[in-house]
Write a structure and sequence with these properties.
The protein is of the alpha/beta class. The chain has 2 domains: 2-24 and 272-356; 30-180 and 187-250, Alpha-Beta Complex (Spore Coat Polysaccharide Biosynthesis Protein SpsA, Chain A), CATH 3.90.550.10. It is built from 12 helices and 10 strands. It has helices spanning 2-27, 56-64, 84-92, 108-118, 137-147, 165-186, 202-208, 220-230, 253-265, 273-296, 302-328, 333-357, and strands at residues 43-49, 71-77, 98-102, 123-127, 131-133, 152-154, 157-159, 197-201, 235-237, 245-247.
Length: 364
Amino acid sequence: MWLIVISLIICFLYLILLSAFIFGWKRTPNFEPNGNESVNTKLSIVIACRNEEDHLRRLLSSLAQQSYQNFELILVNDHSTDKTKKIIENVQISFPKIQLVDAIGFGKKNALKEGIQIATGNLIVTTDADCIPSFHWLESIVCFQNSFPSDLIICPLKLFGKSTLFSCLQTLEFCSLVASGAGAAGAGMPILCNGANLAFTKKTWLTSQDDLNEEELSGDDIFLLESVKKRGGVVRFLKSESAFVVTEPAVTLVSFFKQRRRWASKSPAYTDLHLIYTACVVFTICLLPFFLIGFSFFEPQLWTLVFLVFGFKYLFDTYFLFSVRTFFHLQHVCIYSFLLSLIYPFYIVSVGITALIFKPKSWD
């Protein structure tokens, strides 16, 4: 009986969480730049680069062709050992907006810090070297800031790669993370953002600089969000397909696992109650089936509860994904959501536990 009660409580808490995300997503209006706004805000794009020779040309080409051109591009070379620096120097000849900075310290967080400190734009935009922004990316951000002044703007991301099952499942899982962050922001409780597509005022960053947990290897994006939120700053999600940045999914299961473990490793340093609640509820509902299955071998009637919990989570997860499928251009949601529901508990529990035991020592 006590297992049934606990299961009902966990499912109810998860239902509240997901309902808040759905509510926040639906109340966030779509935004598109109309092309007629007389804005001329100078932007500073800051990108940390470490051994990115395979991606830089593609990124720099897309930045050179942006519809909005009033920006400076600060590329911080974090002690690359490949041709990263040489590629940047070659492109500088035809792309004078580029400032190449050789990082003094080590690590992505430090590289971004050094770049932001010399930025001259009032609005800072960050992305990653392996990303590709859309043609109207900067235009969307600057027009949104002009229409809805914000301290921090969470911008949309999605994966784009080969149509393998592994890639499709990653795409769906990643979209669920981005949409959850967007929905949470829309509900007035922002919890997630990603430095691969993020905008904030320089004043905001300078005010929050001491809250960025320098001892942590990464996580400057979430720590910045927490600091802005704690100070009562304005955090918004830019719900615009013109503001998308795309990146490739992980090639192997090992690289995917390492990336997610790196993301999760800084979770003990988080202090935001909404984020802690979210992490605890998601981890608990993923852990619940393992306990129920274990007890089912002693009490066979509990197998019914196992399937009910699984069915409950699958239905509500799928409904949430259906709510965002048009924006993210998701396909075959029901099928991939079902497969992900089978894998997700193992993935979340293993990543959560190992991230607390094995702290990553590098950001690449």
